[in-house]
Specification:
Length: about 425
Amino acid sequence: MPDTPDKPSSRRAFLTAGAAAGGAMLTAGPARAGDPAITEMQPWRRNLGDPIDDALYGMPSPFEADVIRGRVEWLTPDAYTAINFTPLHELDGIITPNGLCFQRSHAGAAQVDPAKYRLMINGLVERPLVFTLQDLQRFPRENRTYFLECAANSGMEWRGVQMDGVQFTHGMIHNVEYTGVPLRSLLEEAGVKTAGKWLLAEGSDAAAMSRSIPLEKALDDCLVAFNMNGEALRPEQGYPVRLVVPGWEGNMWVKWLRRIEVGDKPWHHREETSKYSDLMADGRTRRFTWEMDAKSVITSPSPQAPVLHGKGPLVVSGLAWSGRGTIPQVDITLDGGINWVKARLSGPSFDKSLHRFYYEFDWDGRPLLLQSRAHDSTGYVQPTKEALRKLRGVNSNYHNNGIQTWHLQSDGRVENVEVS
């Protein structure tokens, strides 16, 4: 069972006992005579490996072929207006590899020629401007690590258990280091007129995605980004240039950014009226719910990451994040919310970024109800799904940040469940 402040770590005692018994760590498998993995010459020991020019862009090991994005076939009408999901259960740390970042398309991934790329700034500005990619890269740039979460992440769970895998309940999120130019630098170059209070960001894909953004946010921390994790954006992530709107719903992070218009009021386009608004139980709609509330999820154990080793030391791992700041604390429960203990945060703690947490304990093989609960730097605490439904009903597809429950069974399998 879990460690408590007044009880020493059972894992530590376990390892100490192992060391006393001849120095063997009991977490390792017992030595077996004739283990062919040891006694037989393996092919990688007697044959040359791949030459250095065999893969001029490095690829994962073929033994990691299952670590891929995944799509839910029935969720969208076709592959052009579709979503694929980050395999959170296969990852560790906080950085999402570029090839595994979830993708949301409204008209497929546009293939934009960087030599013909242009970014226009017009509307209520003193000097309407057009930038090439090279023009943007001449401005002083910044590097920032942020999460990007679709407002519909976990949306399929509003009415109850739907998807049996963390990749599909929470995988509409990724976390990368962006390199780009502060949007305020470009707006200062154009000169925003006094009447300018809002921006319209528009993409150059066939859907002409567009969103209204308050000028205050644009001048605060938004980036016009051209790199992610040190290399050029991927086409599905908006190559060659996308907008970065830290902490706010992913639909506002307009990809293949082609135009920024300054205006005096919001535009009320499709993606902020009929879509990406929250229908309440009484028929009213919450609008402009941009910020992503504090949220967390245990990524392992989870339905796609069962416990295969049986009883003994077990590492619980997960992610927490908030669109309003950092995550100073994550709580873990093994009994569905009756008793809570603090998880261990590990790695860097960036503003509006994923935070990795761990909790280690000795599992005795009994069934558990695993949950995590995030606290953010504003004092906000992640709510239960039941509490959210009492406030907002079940009509919305967006902004579900309720606590997720996994049922770890005695045989190591894990199911998506709810407790009340």
